[in-house]
Amino acid sequence: MATEPQASIIARIDVVLAELRELQVGPYFKIAHRFQRALLGCEPGEEVWSVFLIYRGREYPIPFSLALLLLFDYLARTRHSPQLATQIAAGLRRSEFVQLHGANAGAVQIRKYSGSAIKEYIKRMRQALGKVFAEAGLPIAAERVIRSEATDGNGVRYCIKASVDWVHLRDELEDSVGNLVNS
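RE: above sequence
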């Protein structure tokens, strides 16, 4: 039978082990969309409003620019298929969601993507994630989340290793991060 101090230590160890198991699949993110017209999930015309790291019961907003928000959303949607930078750029250019981004609010917000831009955006994304991970006390390198995989040539394929959920903000709740609504 464990004494009270031993039980406390065992409980803390259990918490740390649970967190480590969770990190094996990557950290947990919520991507918030707004300007949803139908209740059918993510549709063209919506806006990627923000990305949040969820860790230890807290939400940490990731300071991404619009281009990085769209890229993170795209990589999260395709996270099970690593892609070359040129494939990512082509996917973004062909994505109806990206091409009509924000249209439900009355103004399309698009960005132009190229293979070389994707490589730079990946660097910026890792920098922003690294800062937020440090702020949250999350012991993981951004490079383990935004992964680079070598090909048999000189190419690099990118993917996200994380758990991701999408939420949609209702019009009356859009200004309050704490009121994210699952859809």
